[in-house]
From TrEMBL:
It comes from Haptolina ericina. This is Heterokaryon incompatibility domain-containing protein. It comes from the Eukaryota.
Length: 139
């Protein structure tokens, strides 16, 4: 039915329009990463995009994330690329600059936070997802 909940992962730009109160800007420090200050209540999600331009067309990944959050109520903050980094070719110059800054530092999330790996058959075939997994195991 069309009135049933349809899980999806909106792009950051769309999320800011649809649910502006959901976004909280946080600045993590290298010291905090090294000393585990974020490991209790932050989770970084490692997943693959299922299709170009749409990370989760079926909603399966969002359902898995919601299930994880339900069973880990101590988690207060979630970082997932599609909803935390501006996506698409329609990014403004300031969005592109922020994207590049965040991309250069995203490795700290996978070193200093809990990491939820949304594993499927294609996950091990992608460099970026394997890099995220390696970082999470290295912490």
């Amino acid at each position: 039915k069309s009135d049933q909940f349809q899980p999806h992962m909106p792009r950051l730009q769309d999320l800011l329009l649809e649910r502006p109160g959901w976004m909280v800007r946080k600045q993590l420090s290298f010291r905090g990463v090294c000393f585990g200050e974020y490991s209790a209540d932050y989770v970084a999600v490692s997943h693959r995009w299922e299709s170009p331009g749409n990370a989760d067309p079926t909603g399966r990944q969002m359902i898995a994330l919601c299930d994880h959050l339900h069973s880990h109520p101590q988690i207060q903050f979630v970082w997932i690329d599609v909803m935390c980094l501006s996506q698409g070719k329609d990014r403004s110059p300031s969005e592109k600059a922020e994207f590049n800054t965040m991309l250069a530092n995203v490795n700290f999330l996978y070193l200093g936070c809990q990491v939820l790996i949304l594993l499927d058959n294609e996950y091990p075939r992608r460099f970026w997802t394997m890099f995220e997994a390696w970082l999470s195991f290295s912490a």
